[in-house]
Amino acid sequence: MILKAAQELSRSLPLMSRGLALVWRAARLWTVAWGVLIVAQGLLPAILVHLTRTAVNHLADALAAPDTLTAFAVAWPSLAGIAALLIAGQLLASLVAWVRGVQAELVQDHIKELIHAHALRLDLAFFEEPDSYDLLYRASVDAINRPVILLENLGTFLQNALTLAALALLLAAYAPWLPLLLVGSALPGLWIVARFILREVAWRRANTGNERRLRYYDWMMTEKESAAEMRIFALGDHHRGAYAQLRTELRAWRLKLAASELRAELAAGAISWAGALAGMLWMLKRAANGLAKLGDLVLCYQAFQQGQALLRALLESSGQIYRSVLFLDNLFQFLETAPQLEDPPRPQPPPTLLRQGVRFEGVSFRYPGRGRDALHDFSLDLPAGRTIAIVGPNGAGKSTLIKLLCRFYDPQQGRILIDGIDVRQMAQADLWRLITVLFQEPVNYHASAADNIAMGDLTADADRIAAAARASGADGCIARLPNGFDTVLGQWFGGAELSVGEWQRLALARAFLRDAPILILDEPTSAMDSWAEADWLKRFSELTVGRTALMITHRFTTAMHADIVHVMRAGRIVESGTHAELVAAEGLYAESWREQMREMGGAAGE
Ligand code: ATP
Question: Which of 41, 65, 331, 468 is 20 to 30 A from 445 via CA?
Fold first, then answer.
């Protein structure tokens, strides 16, 4: 146990100094002011105890003196001093609270800024790992207040330690072993606090998964995304039950820990009070022998009584400091997570106009932790200025293509070239400027309709935004909104809600707005009705003029408008050609095409 505590301590100290460095960087002057105030607060109680002794002795002498009034006059200065110190104590407490408040604001903003900047630097792969999500959550939710709590507890610790040292000095004037008795009687308490914190920490580490699961159940019952299914499938009770069961298990352990902590604390408290009693008895004996006065008895009582409380507070704050340090560990772990895909040291300039196009050359890629390649020895040409469609069953690897082209991941084998330049040789920001994408699940920005489109290019003016809306067919639904382009959308800020298809058209407009030579559309018509699809496809060739377009779709009625269609299956291209060629080839494409046509014919006939 001592070895474990020492290990934990050696791990915690560097974290603590990093936490304090964080506070220092965020609020230097405020931290200096805080330090000065803490020292003043720490010395105040001992000076007060000292003055109380003097005042009590003077008062006792005055009561015994023949001329009480004159003798009382001697006690006035110490009594006035006590009053001044009490007022100063109040003032200091208010000042410290104010300084801490300012520090807290500054430190929290500083940490949020660090988290935001770092989260935006990380690769997409980071956000797909459940552990990273957990780390990010804990760093941004739990750790954000921790440096301030650490500082607060450190302040309490320093202040109490100072007061205790000053009180110990006062006691040492009577006998050197008196302060030792005070501290020694508190040692069992220290041991208990350390032991319980270690147990709690071990438990929390072991139960992170369960805590995450609790958050998941909680989320399912309270979020909009799941609200409809919870009701229609009557899943509320199922989730409430699962939540309650897990909470019961976790709570039972906590309550058990709290009960045994209480028993151990009571025992430790009894030992420390026995120490105080021994000290007081010794002083009483001295008083009986005429070696101590009433003031000394009061001092001894106050020193022991306050000393015990201080030691207890010291233990509490050391526990809190330790807890804060552990939470800070999450923050630092997150900030230390390096992006895996870095820019090359000397990036190649990107092409301004695409002349050759995009080429996948023998690309094999496997997602981290997966046992199978999502793409295997995959080659594909996207000639400049042409529109290529990729069709294929679910899980064939179509969206993975996009992720690789955007360099959200690097393939394990092969390369991806844009006009002959490997995407790994370009700066990521340059690469992303070449590409505009309609993702399979685009973001619905809770902002105005115009801003939803403008997110594709924040420098665009109203005319370009309106043109992009026309190109995607979003203009019709925007015209029906109460304030047209200025209508706020989404429910976060009380805006208008759109249908899935309408949101998709806005996202399409966003993709069109961006003036990039490579246009990628992942399921652009999946949420469009067939009339809208037909109308949109009529204009599609105009929209792709001068661009190299890659379109992923399940609808063959969309794919047939491409210059070349590739059929993908299990990470490979299995058929290629124009729509007419593929239908004539009587292969997979032709089979699926006929099936889709039969279904549509059937539906039309019904
Ligand atoms: P769909 O038509 O359903 O959109 P798709 O052809 O776009 O499918 P991909 O999303 O590229 O398919 O997925 C290809 C394979 O890679 C699938 O087996 C999928 O399970 C796996 N996969 C996709 N994304 C990830 C990921 N982030 N981590 C691990 N595996 C993934």
Answer: 331
CA dist., res. 322 & res. 429, Å (int): 41
What CA–CA distance (Å, rounded) separates 552 from 392? Answer: 9
Provide the token pair at 548: 């190299």
**From the CB of residue 201, how many other CB atoms can be counted at a distance below 10 Å?**
14
- Ligand 1: which residue has its CA nearest to atom 9? 397
In three-state secondary structure terms, 550 is: strand
Segment 367-382, tens digit of pLDDT:
888 889 999 999 999 9
The ligand 1 atom at the shortest distance from the C-alpha of residue 128 is 27
Tell me what percent of the residues of the chain surpass a pLDDT of 70.
Answer: 97
Q: Give the 3-state secondary structure percentages of the chain, helix then strand then coil, rounded to 5.
A: 70, 10, 20
Closest atom of ligand 1 to 400 CA is 11
What is the tens place of the pLDDT at every residue in 135-188?
A: 777 777 777 777 778 888 888 888 888 888 888 888 888 888 888 888 888 777
Among protein residues, the one with the nearest Cα to ligand 1's atom 29 is: 367
Q: pTM of the prediction?
A: 0.78
Q: How far apart are CA 7 and CA 29, in angstroms?
A: 34
Check residue 603 and give its pLDDT: 46
Q: Which amino acid is at 45?
A: P
Cα-to-centroid distance, 518 and ligand 1 (Å):
22
Helices (H), 422-494: 428-434, 449-454, 462-472, 475-479
Q: Across the strands, what pairs with 359?
A: 381, 417
**CA distance readout (Å), 476 to 64, 470, 485, 528:** 100, 8, 11, 13
User: Which residues lie with the beta carbon below 6 Å from any ligand 1 atom?
Assistant: 128, 367, 370, 374, 392, 394-400, 440
Average pLDDT of the residues of the chain? 86
206 vs 158 pLDDT, higher one: 158
